[in-house]
Predict the structure.
Amino acid sequence: MKIETKIEKFTKPLYLESGRILEPWQIIYETYGELNEDKSNVILITHALSGSHHAAGLYPGDRKPGWWDKLIGDGKAIDTTKYFVIATNVIGSCFGSTGPMSPIYPGSNERYRLKFPVITIKDMIKAQKILLDSLGIKKLKAVIGGSMGGMQALRLAVDYPGFAEYIIPIATTYQTKPYVIAINKSMIEAIRADKEFKNGNYPIGAELKGLAAARMIGYLNYISPSTFEKKFGREYVKTDGMFELFGRFQVESYLEYNGANFPKWFDALSYIYLLKAISLFDISRGFNSLDEAFKQIKDKLFLISFSGDTLFFPQEMRDIKKYMDKVGGKAQYYEIDSDYGHDSFLVEIDKFDYLISDILKGELDARF
C-alpha cells in the first residue's frame, strides 16, 4: 500500500461559523493507494476526538499502525488497490493542521493558545472541502468516520449534498445530548483546574496532569460497564496493600496508565477546543428544523451503531433513520451487536468491516 503524508497551506482566509477567520491556515493529510484518472475512487476518512490523519500503515519506528489499519489497506474492507483514501487531521487538532498551539503567523514565536477561535464540526468539514477542491476532487466515492468523525460525515452530507456517493457515519449522533455535554464539561474543567495549565500558557510539550485526569473521565464513557467488569472485575494490584489509602484496583491502574500516557502525545488546548466542537454539534443549526436539515441529504446514507454504546446511544442513530424516512431520504440503519462500548468502532473492526465492504461495492443499494 502506497502511503504519503502531505501538508496543504492556504493563504485565503477560512471563514468560520463563529464569524471569525483563520488566515493563513493549513491541513496535514495522509493518502493511501492511487488516484485513478478521472478521480472517481476517492474515499475521505474523518477522525474522532483524539484521532489524526495517520489512519493506517506504519511509519518507520512505529510500534503500532494507524488507528483504522484493520479497515484500510490492500485487500481490506476499504481496499487501497481500488480506492484512493484521504485521511485528514482536522483544524483545531495538534498533529499538524492549524490549531491552538500553531504560530499565529508563519515564523512567529507567538502561539494562538486561547486566542484561537472556537471551531465547529461545520468548520472542520469546510476546511476539508477546500482541501479536496484544491486537489481537483469533485466527487467522493464515500466519506466514513466514527464518533466525531461520524459528525463530520453527516455535516458533509448536509452542507455539500451530492458530493459523496455514500455517507457512512458510525457510532455518532445528529445533535450532542446534555449527557455528553456534561461529560465534556467535566473533562475541560479537569484540565483547567491543573495549576500547570496557567490559563493556556503552559510550555509547549508540557504533560499536564489535568489532561491525564480528563482522559480517565473519558474512558468511563468510551468503554461500557460490562467491558470493565469482564476485563478487570474487582481484582486488586498485587503489589498494593488492600488498606493503603491509594492502593489500587486493577481498573484504577488501567485508568492511571492510559491517563498518564495521553499527555505525552496529545495537547491540552486541542482537547478543550475539540470537546467544545463536539458539544456544539447540532446538524440543524442554520436550518429552521431537523426536518429541513435532513432534507438536504441527497446521497445514500448508511448508519452504523453499536448496541452497547453508552456515549452515543443507538437510539440516536435510529432517530436519524426516522428523520430521513420522514423527509423521503435514502437511509439504511445497521446496529452491531456489541457490549464493548463506544470504542467498538475502533477495536471490533471484524464486526462491521464486511458491511463497509458491501456498501462500497454497491451491494446494499437495492435495499433503498
